[in-house]
Amino acid sequence: MIQVTLDMFLTSDARICGEVELRVHQCLHSMAGNLESIKRVYAHAQSLQQCKTWLRMNLPHVTCEAVGSNAEAARLARHADDAGAIAGETAGKVYGLRTLATGIEDRADNTTRFLVIGRSLFPPSGNDRTSLLITVNDQPGALYHVLSPFAAHGVSLNRIESRPAHSGKWQYAFFIDVSGHIQDEALQAAVKEIEQSVAQLRVLGSYPVALP
């Protein structure tokens, strides 16, 4: 997930109601007729990261510029003969660009995870994931006290990412995904134990795991 999306949960009471995973295939579009004419490449920062090996091997001397979205990248490339844009196939068609290369993502299984946002919690489906937002103070053992209860109660950790919290200086927020539903006894026990040693714990949502 993109970091700006995670940061929005720090100031919002929205919940995660579901997730969708989509395969993402990146293309290089341009008004130019060949790769040799390209001097700079526009793309969202995430797309630049996803295609960094291809860019290094095929366009080692170009300037890469991160923009707000791949659609914005395509719009900018539309008005420059020496610029390229990393975007999906549809964006190239919408902005009338030539497609100079397809499938330039570094990983063949390149996938983007999208969250379904709402206000409600849903009952267990039998194959669920739970997202938690946990804020801790900057002190020795803080992360240990967050993670050890999951292991003690047999809860599998799927993902963890840290961000500076907005609640105070030297506080950090951990976005954690675990297997199971918040109504599961093991997860409830782990959460209850974690709450005793952290500044804040929010259940962002329990929802069915995305279908492959």
Automatic annotation (TrEMBL):
Gene3D superfamilies: 3.30.70.260, Periplasmic binding protein-like II (3.40.190.10)
UniProt pathway: Amino-acid biosynthesis; L-phenylalanine biosynthesis; phenylpyruvate from prephenate: step 1/1; Amino-acid biosynthesis; L-phenylalanine biosynthesis; L-phenylalanine from L-arogenate: step 1/1
Span of domain ACT: 131-208
GO MF entries: arogenate dehydratase activity; prephenate dehydratase activity
CDD domains (UniProt xref): ACT_CM-PDT, PBP2_PDT_1
Domain Prephenate dehydratase: 1-119
GO BP annotations listed: L-phenylalanine biosynthetic process
This protein's record includes keyword Oxidoreductase: no
GO cellular component: chloroplast stroma
Catalytic activity: prephenate + H(+) = 3-phenylpyruvate + CO2 + H2O
Keyword terms, alphabetized: Amino-acid biosynthesis, Aromatic amino acid biosynthesis, Lyase, Phenylalanine biosynthesis
Compartments (UniProt record): Plastid, Chloroplast stroma
Name of the molecule in the record: Uncharacterized protein
Organism classification: Eukaryota, Viridiplantae, Streptophyta, Embryophyta, Tracheophyta
